[in-house]
Amino acid sequence: MATLPPGQRKLFEEPNLAAVSTLGADGGPHVTMAWVDIEGDELVFNSAEHRGWPKNLRNDPRVAVCVFDRNNWVRNVAVTGRVTSMSTDGAWDHIQQLARKYGESEYKGATDRVIIRVAVESSFGYSL
Predict the structure, then answer these.
(1) C-alpha torsion sign, points 40, 3, 24, 61
(2) In the chain, where do the E strands start and end?
(3) According to the model, what pLDDT value does residue 38 have?
(4) What CA–CA distance (Å, rounded) separates 5 from 9?
(5) Residue 119's Cα: distance from chain center in Å?
(6) How far apart are the C-alpha atoms of 31 and 85, rounded to whole Å?
(7) Cα–Cα distance between 88 and 116 in angstroms, integer?
(8) Are the CB atoms for 93 and 83 separated by under 8 Å?
(9) Can you tell me the distance from the alpha carbon of 67 to that of 65, in angstroms, rounded to the nearest whole number?
(10) Which residues contact 10 (CB under 8 A, 6 or more apart)?
(11) Percent helix, strand, coil in the chain (nearest 5)?
(12) Distance (Å, rounded) from C-alpha 24 to C-alpha 3?
């Protein structure tokens, strides 16, 4: 597992959107935009379990993520990694926490939540 340098880590700590790329059952790419957080050296996502990308990650834990600075999209970090865990424990509370990070008072969407933790294997920062 790699440790992100402070400038790269900051983009994950701030309310910046991430593009998450997974591999489908047919081996094809699937990209979705997601809220992201960081705890320790792991990226932390939250999704509805019924969506495609959590299903993809159960079949193949490899993931690529690019987070973009919301004020200057040229500043971004590209990461490759692997899922370390997927859990429903505390997932509803976690999505509420992410909603507040991203400026929402509460999350009112799908209730079948899962927390996805990703260990960073490599990263590259642009314009940082």
Answers:
(1) negative
(2) 18-23, 29-34, 37-39, 42-48, 62-68, 76-87, 113-126
(3) 97
(4) 6
(5) 11
(6) 20
(7) 9
(8) no
(9) 7
(10) none
(11) 20, 45, 35
(12) 27
Owner of token pair 């959107």: 17
> Percentage of the chain surpassing pLDDT 70?
100
**CA proximity to 57, closest of 70, 47, 66:** 47
- Per DSSP bridges, beta strands 42-48 and 29-34 are unpaired
Q: Is the pLDDT of residue 112 over 90?
A: yes
Query: Which residue do the tokens 């971004």 mark?
Result: 76
Residues 20-53: tens digit of each pLDDT: 999 999 999 999 999 999 999 999 999 999 999 9
Residue 66 burial (CB < 10 Å; 0-12/13-18/19+)? Answer: middle
Q: Which residue has the tokens 């990226």?
A: 43
Report residue 108 as tokens.
């009112």
Q: Which residue type does 58 have?
A: R
